[in-house]
Design brief:
heterodimer, A: alpha+beta, Butyryl-CoA Dehydrogenase, subunit A, domain 3, two-stranded antiparallel sheet, 11 helices, B: Butyryl-Coa Dehydrogenase, subunit A, domain 1, Butyryl-CoA Dehydrogenase, subunit A, domain 2, 3 domains
């Protein structure tokens, strides 16, 4: 991928591991409620889920680029594990300076109209949407409203779960209801807008996952059209197919490039997203809009086989559909970007675009 | 899995922000106050001002008066000029591709003679590729050059040549030999043709946009010196890839209709309704993406690569987008109750609608580009 300073050896090792464990069979099993414990253990052993957490907080402290590479590769393999969400959790914990236990830690993501409150005894109550696979998490980080601002609380995952439903990707998703859940650790620092921090980092990670899935789809398509024969020759030889795939390549390249730019800009700003708004918004908008085009073209060139659950295309298709909705879809990020333009004194676009 | 198309994310070095500031000051000083006089197309006066400021031939060797600056720095200067709508077309082709072409393939004498004046903004160049019977199929070119004791004799017709009336020189692709059985690209040679040579007639072709940017250029026994053949005789096809990467990946591939997006932003600024903000934001995100891709190709050129496929991708997505832009802006504001009261916005949309059809044709059609990309993907 297009981020400098990434370690090719590490990327190779991650690639190999994720390719080995991310089978179509595993995806289908997860969809039926299976938790891939042994696969998860292998991923943990390599230090992937907590890549961004500094050593002082119990993490492996990999260079920041590597986290984005891991997200990209998990997308490229449609790995049915919460690697990227655990990564986001490690970024949030780093921001909040919370030491994490060596276990699966995921997080809640409260919508604007719902809040979690902490009482004078230090217990948390309220309702919260949690990330996929959070029903398997041992700990959760939750954004908490206090009287003076917002903080991050680490709790043991004992909340009551609403019915677990599968996302479009076929991964388990639920809401949690907490009644006086005991807080294990609370961030000292107050975030002016903790929701924004989570959503910004999450949006870039999701853009990388969509970039990876799109790259995988392109490779699947190129391979398929060279093998599949109709009218006496590989369908790759038909100009109509060539033009489809050329258009697809443009969409894939634009998703990947914009995701990399947003990643770089987050890294440069130490994961504080102020000043990186247009890069993040553009990455998630691009991933959403172009992701849909990638899917349409890929299924069109595949014909009926792409629509089956035994062929691998659907794993990527459905993940892109799921990921584009999470941490703000393209409509929401477009609106934010439009508001960034119109809420300033002058609506000059050009200085903003090349800021 | 290895991906075969890569656009590295570019982080601009800090000193380039200074360059950007200086270009903006330059435009503020030299262009904006004289906008109505200088226009937005060809302006010999503005080209000379750019020359004086060191904005032409920025990457060329100092030996000929060039700046030996990076491609990224040149990129910044170019995009600022285009975003401001400055009248750069008098030196654009010379700076973008004719200069680098001459530096690679012309004789020392020609270089010493021409390059300094190109850098000063005094010479305008045009590119003679298309012909009445040869458009996308460049290798079907028929206009011919024959070797004689006096030099080369040119005969034939070039068509759709932008800026031929203003140009001092043309870089022309001429047939010097028949194509061979096994290589239909064989037999074409590039020539440097002074446009004031006897035997050249230029006829303007009026466009539907109301201008006469295009021309028909007729060669009738035009004699040019032997030295004016550039590079390998019959082997022009080998020289094209770098030139095309320059030509296809620049900011003109997504900024030509930019003013209509700014006009939309001005309108939404005054009418900050949510649905308008969302539509505006989506277009701004598009622009952001395509600019980053284009910047990434500039970086590859800086590293000495010839990113043919990546450049074709930038031109494909960028030109389709800038072509659709006036339609999309129209569809965003056209249903607003006060649309009739926005004469300026309507004028902007109409002006850009009129140039939109050509944007996916000039410099390689969408279909040609997709063929190149498909080859890059291993499909042909």
């Amino acid at each position: 991928m297009g981020l400098a300073n990434t370690d090719a050896l590490l990327a190779d090792a991650v690639s190999k591991l994720l390719r080995n464990i991310s089978s179509n069979e595993l995806c289908l099993a997860v969809e039926k409620g299976h938790w891939p414990a042994s696969e998860w253990a292998q991923v943990v052993e390599m230090g992937l889920p907590m890549a961004w957490l500094p050593e002082s907080l119990g993490g492996p402290e990999l260079p920041p680029e590597e986290g984005f590479t891991i997200a990209r590769l998990s997308g490229r393999n449609a790995t049915p594990l919460p690697i990227s969400d655990a990564l986001i959790a490690s970024a949030i914990a780093t921001q909040a300076k919370l030491k994490l236990p060596n276990a699966l830690v995921l997080f809640g993501n409260t919508p604007a109209n719902k809040t979690l409150v902490i009482d004078s005894d230090g217990n948390v109550s309220g309702r919260c949407r949690v990330t996929t696979f959070a029903n398997h998490a041992e700990y959760l980080m939750l954004p908490i409203q206090t009287s003076t601002g917002s903080r991050i609380a680490l709790i043991e995952n004992s909340g009551n779960q609403s019915t677990v439903e599968n996302t479009l990707a076929g991964e388990p998703c639920c809401e949690c209801i907490f009644e006086k859940a005991r807080v294990i650790a609370l961030s000292d620092e107050e975030f002016s807008d903790v929701q924004k921090t989570i959503e910004d980092i999450g949006a870039v990670v999701r853009s990388q996952q969509i970039a990876g899935a799109s790259e995988a789809i392109m490779a699947i398509c190129v391979n398929y059209v060279n093998i599949r024969e109709q009218f006496g020759r590989p369908i790759a030889k038909f100009q109509a197919i060539q033009h489809h795939l050329a258009a697809l390549a443009g969409e894939v390249a634009s998703i990947a490039c914009t995701a990399d730019v947003a990643s770089l800009s987050l890294i440069k700003n130490n994961f504080n997203s102020n000043g990186t708004d247009i890069a993040i918004a553009s990455a998630k908008v691009r991933a959403g809009i172009s992701g849909a085009k990638v899917i349409r073209i890929a299924h069109q060139v595949h014909g009926a086989i792409g629509f089956t659950d035994e062929y691998e295309l659907h794993r990527f298709t459905r993940r892109i559909w799921s990921w584009r909705e999470e941490f703000g879809n393209e409509m929401i990020w477009s609106r934010r970007l439009g508001q960034l333009v119109t809420n300033s004194d002058s609506p000059q676009l050009w200085p903003l675009v090349c800021a | 899995m290895k991906t075969f198309i890569e656009f590295d994310a570019v982080e601009l070095p800090n000193h380039l922000h200074l360059t950007r500031e200086r270009v903006r000051e330059f435009l503020q000083r030299e262009y904006l106050p004289n906008k109505s006089r200088l226009g937005s197309g060809f302006s010999p006066e503005f080209s000379r001002l750019c020359g004086d400021a060191g904005y032409i031939g920025m990457t060329w060797p100092k030996q000929y008066g060039g700046g030996e600056k990076s491609f990224l720095e040149r990129y910044i200067v170019c995009e600022e000029m285009l975003a401001a709508g400055a009248p750069v077309w008098g030196h654009w082709v010379a700076d973008r591709q004719s200069g680098p072409m001459l530096l690679d393939y012309a004789s020392e004498e020609i270089k010493n003679d021409l390059i300094p004046k190109m850098i000063a903004g005094e010479y305008c160049f045009c590119i003679g590729l298309s012909e009445p019977d040869s458009g996308s199929d460049l290798f079907a070119a028929k206009a011919a050059a024959g070797k004689t004791s006096e030099g080369w004799v040119l005969n034939g017709t070039k068509l759709w040549t932008s800026g031929a009336r203003q140009a001092h020189y043309m870089i022309a692709l001429m047939r010097t030999e028949k194509a061979t059985e096994d290589n239909r690209r064989h037999g074409l040679t590039q020539f440097l043709v002074p446009m004031n040579t006897p035997g050249i007639t230029v006829r303007p072709v009026r466009s539907m946009a109301g201008d006469s940017e295009f021309n028909e250029v007729h060669f009738d026994n035009v004699i040019i010196p032997s030295d004016n053949a550039l590079g390998e005789i019959n082997g022009a096809w080998k020289q094209a890839s770098k030139e095309l990467a320059y030509e296809r990946s620049g900011s003109e591939r997504f900024l030509e209709t930019f003013s209509v997006l700014q006009a939309l932003a001005n309108y939404v600024h005054k009418n900050p309704k949510i649905h308008l903000q969302e539509a505006l934001g989506s277009l701004v995100a598009d622009l952001y993406s395509f600019r980053q891709m284009s910047l990434s190709v500039a970086m590859m050129l800086e590293q000495g690569k010839a990113p043919m496929v990546e450049a074709a991708l930038v031109k494909d997505v960028g030109t389709l987008w800038q072509q659709a832009l006036p339609e999309r802006v129209r569809s965003i504001v056209g249903g607003e109750s006060d649309f009739d009261d926005q004469p300026e916005l309507r004028r902007d949309i109409n002006r850009m609608l009129k140039i939109a059809p050509k944007l996916t044709i000039q410099g390689g059609t969408t279909e040609v580009l997709r063929g190149i990309i498909a080859r890059g993907l291993g499909l042909r």
